[in-house]
Amino acid sequence: MTPDGRPDRPTVAVVGGGVAGLAAAFLLKDAGVAVTVLEGSPRLGGKLSVSEVGGVAVDAGAEALLARRPEGVELITELGLAGELQSPGTTAAGIWTRGRIRSLPRRQFMGVPADFDELAATGIVSGDGLARARQDLSLADSAPDGDESVTSRVGGRFGTEVVDRLVEPLLGGVYAGRCEDLSFEATLPALAQAARGRRSLTQAAASLLPPSPASADAAPSALPVFTTLTGGLGALPAALAKASGADVQTSAMVRELARTATGWRLTVGSAHEPRLFDADAVIIAVPGRPGSRLLAAVAGAAAGPLGEVRYASMAIVTLAYPEGAFEPPVTGSGFLVPAIERRAIKAVTFSTVKWPHLRQRGAGLHIVRCSVGRLGEEAVLQRDDGELAALAAADLHDATGVAGEPVDVRVTRWGGGLPQYSVGHLDRVARIRAGIAAQPGLAVCGAAYDGVGIPACISTAKLAVDQVLAYLGSQDMSV
């Protein structure tokens, strides 16, 4: 402490103990600042959590991270957990549509086809739907007038059947949203970029894919598409918290944020027993609405657009079946379910097939994750846990013929868990960041901005850390 009672090094408060907030705390560990993480709930991790099903530790939230985007694997390596990384046994997936589970085309980018003959062989779309999709190659190029929905952009090129039966299940698995609302530019940024200067979306999708295996230029990739941790991605928050060296507090709800002459003051705790916490800089790492409420009095220009970000609720129903319940045995990693099929489940992962290390621990069990709930389907989530599990098991039986009842069940609900990147999202994010930039010593990070996956959240944490360190350095503080 200094003679006047102030800390002898700058203080940074991180509001939110999800993966973005904890990553920010970890990235600050060698910056010469004192970091305090304030998490309002009793546990850390946000949508990362792990618990046992059938005696096996299985993720209850996100169960894989994109390995070909570097931020996640790099952070795990910095934590000393590279030896815990696990590769999937298979990534072959299907779509349950038009009466059966059909193989997902290999030559597609988030459902946008790059090979019409392969698409035809899957039977995912009808003959009329395929004929309409092929028109993408001959339609005149139409430059979009600003942002538009996925349905508008992709459906305008391929027709609605490709959107409904192929693109929507893939994007729905990521956002639990609907293509008529989701932004093409925000949810498919790589495709949007590739489409510029190309006449067809088919050509744009093909440019983003590795060469066909039949091509002489094709070479096997050394990196898996996805990875996870031996103990589940739910183990990552605790590892980040410990390695960060930060003062990590749970059940520490931040209710107000105010600027002071020297920095920021946070009001923490209940309205009856509040406590004040002073910091030189603050990183807001909470979802849109609570973040908007905190910013309303200090950064109204950012609070407005942040409060506009909608969230979808969903649940994960994890079922453990005995060996032999699936005949014939399942071989793929899982399947997706289009919304037009009107089923409770929207995605299924055969966890002990996808992740061989779980199979080795499973004592003869098949563990299956069923995702339930999309934007606008809140009614199905109002059922109690038993009903929700029964719905998922019934859909799984109809899709696979699985015999008998599960021997163990876990239902995990993620209320308001997935931000919706609706049309205009990129503009909203730009307005949020412009409003934040006008408040020195303040930054934001998390899933509401540049992507909902773990690597994207880490990327926003890096950006927030760079912003607050630049500010602290400009104030001649010791950082």
Topology, element by element:
Blueprint: E1 11-15, H1 19-27, E2 34-38, E3 50-53, E4 56-59, E5 65-66, H2 70-78, E6 85-86, E7 93-97, E8 100-103, E9 108-109, E10 112-113, H3 116-122, H4 127-134, H5 150-158, H6 160-175, H7 184-187, H8 189-195, H9 201-207, E11 226-229, H10 236-244, E12 247-249, E13 254-259, E14 264-268, E15 275-279, E16 281-284, H11 288-295, H12 300-307, E17 311-322, E18 334-336, E19 345-350, H13 351-354, H14 356-361, E20 365-372, H15 378-381, H16 385-400, E21 408-419, H17 425-437, E22 442-444, H18 454-474
Parallel strand pairs: 1-2, 1-16, 2-12, 7-18, 16-22
Antiparallel strand pairs: 3-4, 5-11, 6-11, 7-8, 9-10, 13-14, 14-15, 17-20, 17-21, 18-19, 19-20
Q: pLDDT under 50 segments (min length 5)?
A: 215-221
Q: Would you identify the CATH H-level superfamily of the largest domain?
A: FAD/NAD(P)-binding domain
Give the spatial strand order of the biggest sheet.
Answer: 8-7-18-19-20-17-21
CATH topology name of the largest domain, in short, is FAD/NAD(P)-binding domain
Please state the CA-atom Rg, rounded to the nearest Å.
Answer: 23 Å
The average pLDDT value, as a whole number, equals: 94
How far the N terminus sits from the C terminus, by CA atoms, comes to 16 Å
CATH architecture of the largest domain: 3-Layer(bba) Sandwich
Going by helix content, strand content and strand pairing, the class is: alpha+beta
User: How would the global form be characterised?
Assistant: globular
How many beta strands in the DSSP annotation?
22
Count helical runs.
Answer: 18
Total number of distinct structural domains:
3
Query: How much strand content do the residues show?
Result: 15-25%
Q: Roughly what percent helix?
A: 25-40%
* Main sheet makeup: 7 strands, mixed
- The first-level CATH class name of the largest domain: Alpha Beta
